[in-house]
Design a protein that fits this description.
The structure holds two protein chains of two kinds. Chain A is an alpha/beta fold. Chain A contains six helices and eleven strands.
Chain lengths: 193, 290
């Protein structure tokens, strides 16, 4: 199983560590050549991509300039399992990569003083620790989107077909359950991407 | 229950692999954000001008900082003087995302740094070596940067600080357990922090390069030396083509290990800022606050 982690800016190393601990092979994507290598390498159909936390404006800028925007968008629409945390959630929404039928509200909890930790119920997992850092939440979601977690009534985790997003950062905690859920999606997907 | 120290360290983790740019106006802040900056540092005068102007340099006008907070969606940082906890309280009151307790401004206290654990907002502090870094972390800093000589466009000091810190970290890793107590004594820091570095081979907080970064190659150099991201002060808005240089430095930090990409990024950037060699300057800001 191979997981590509977008490594343009942000906390990609934390995802890398998490996936490695779970036994997945990881590749950091810094440019188009890295992406092409990843997509053409043999994986037995078990491949997935992750967009980490960081600043979505910074990642979007580099992604567009590097010519990564269209190939990544196309791959996800073709079924590549994709996992986005925080900025990654924003990047999968209608206003960015436009692959997932959600609208993210950026900096929904305000500035750094609004960052917080909590625990919440996650559909199919149970209680998970949730770390929100200048986090977004999902303010609109289409009919195909399943909301997986809410905090104070706001949607903070969701799934749509091959896509999984969280507004919080499972990669910053010791709890591996959300990453395991994503690896489960990769295993079940079996799309020849 | 609420652990601000951890949350504040985690915000710094989100800034990794990014470039934090000094800006003096909302317009510059928007240029920085569009170029891919992961945060901006709001200040009235960039270090090169502070150096040229001389005199006492203080925290910026909160109204000016607010203007920048309104202009961008990325985190906004601002500087307060070393030891000036009242300036820090003011910056917290306007909900700044990170305070830089900075030697670039005139120090307010020549003995005590700010007790940063008393604040809910995070602090980044400069350090020339491991002892300084761990002392600042002990006081509550949740991010460290080198104290490269600001406003000079000369990278030599940032390189010196980063190399020294990394070699001191490697030395701590190689020590026997029973030698760590003496190391803590020599570094003038608590044993627990020494133990952390010994076991993990890195600081317990994110470590950026700052001071003298003027080109994509400078940024790549600092990343290869172990920086986790880069602050660029005067290097961008003191250059001929700020927009292009800002974008190039952002991409250089992402592709710091790829000379082919770096070669492309280094083309046609126009005039770099006019530098001053460290031997030509009167005031070594890195000597402030040890």
């Amino acid at each position: 199983m191979k997981i590509a982690i977008l490594a343009l800016q942000g906390a990609f190393a934390e995802h890398e560590q998490m996936f490695r601990n779970l036994g997945a092979e990881t590749t950091l994507i810094r440019n188009l050549a890295d992406w092409r290598n990843f997509m053409s390498s043999p994986s037995g159909g078990m491949r997935g991509g992750t967009i980490p936390g960081g600043e979505s404006t910074a990642m979007m800028r580099i992604m567009r300039d590097e010519g990564l925007f269209e190939p990544i968008r196309r791959a996800i629409l073709d079924g590549l399992p994709a996992f986005g945390t925080c900025a990654g959630l924003i990047m999968l929404d209608r206003n960015h990569l436009n692959v997932m039928d959600i609208k993210a509200r950026r900096n929904a909890y305000g500035r750094q003083l609004g960052s917080f930790n909590t625990e919440g119920d996650f559909v199919g997992i149970g209680q998970v620790p949730m770390t929100f850092i200048r986090a977004p939440y999902i303010e609109e979601a289409g009919p195909e989107v399943e909301i997986l977690a809410r905090v104070d009534g706001k949607a903070v985790a969701a799934r749509q077909k091959n896509m999984l997003v969280t507004a919080f950062h499972p990669e910053l905690t010791d709890d591996t359950s959300v990453h395991e859920l994503f690896l489960g999606m990769v295993t079940k997907c079996h799309v020849p991407v | 229950m609420e652990d601000r120290q951890t949350l504040n360290r985690q915000l710094a983790q989100m800034l990794k692999g990014g470039v934090i740019m000094d800006v003096t106006t909302p317009e510059q802040a928007r240029i920085a954000e569009a170029a891919g900056a992961c945060a901006v540092m709001a200040l009235e005068r960039i270090p090169a001008d502070i150096r040229a102007a001389g005199g006492v340099s203080r925290m910026s006008d909160p109204k000016m900082i607010r203007g920048i907070q309104e202009a961008v969606t990325i985190p906004v940082m601002a500087k307060c003087r070393i030891g000036h906890f009242a300036e820090a309280q003011i910056l917290e009151a306007i909900e700044i995302d990170y305070i830089d307790e900075s030697e670039v401004l005139s120090p307010a206290d020549d003995i005590y740094h700010i007790d940063k654990r008393k604040f809910r907002v995070p602090f980044v502090c400069g350090a020339k070596d491991l002892g300084e870094a761990l002392r600042r972390i002990n006081e509550g800093a949740t991010m460290i940067r080198t104290k490269g000589e600001p406003g000079t466009g000369d990278i030599i000091q940032a390189v010196r600080h980063m190399r020294l810190m990394q070699s001191e970290i490697r030395r701590l890793v190689s020590l026997n357990d029973d030698e760590l107590y003496e190391a803590a004594k020599q570094l003038r820091v608590p044993y627990d922090l020494v133990r952390y570095v010994h076991e993990n081979g890195k600081l317990p907080v994110v470590n950026f390069a700052a001071g003298g970064v003027a080109t994509p190659a400078d940024a790549a150099l600092m990343m290869q030396l172990g920086a986790e991201g880069v602050f660029v002060g005067s290097g961008i808005f003191k250059s001929g083509n700020p927009e292009k240089r800002a974008q190039a430095i952002v991409k250089a930090v992402t592709n710091y290990n790829n000379p082919t990409v770096l070669a492309e990024l280094s083309e046609d950037l126009g005039e770099a800022m006019v530098g001053i060699n460290e031997s030509e300057i009167q005031l070594l800001m890195a000597e402030r606050g040890l």
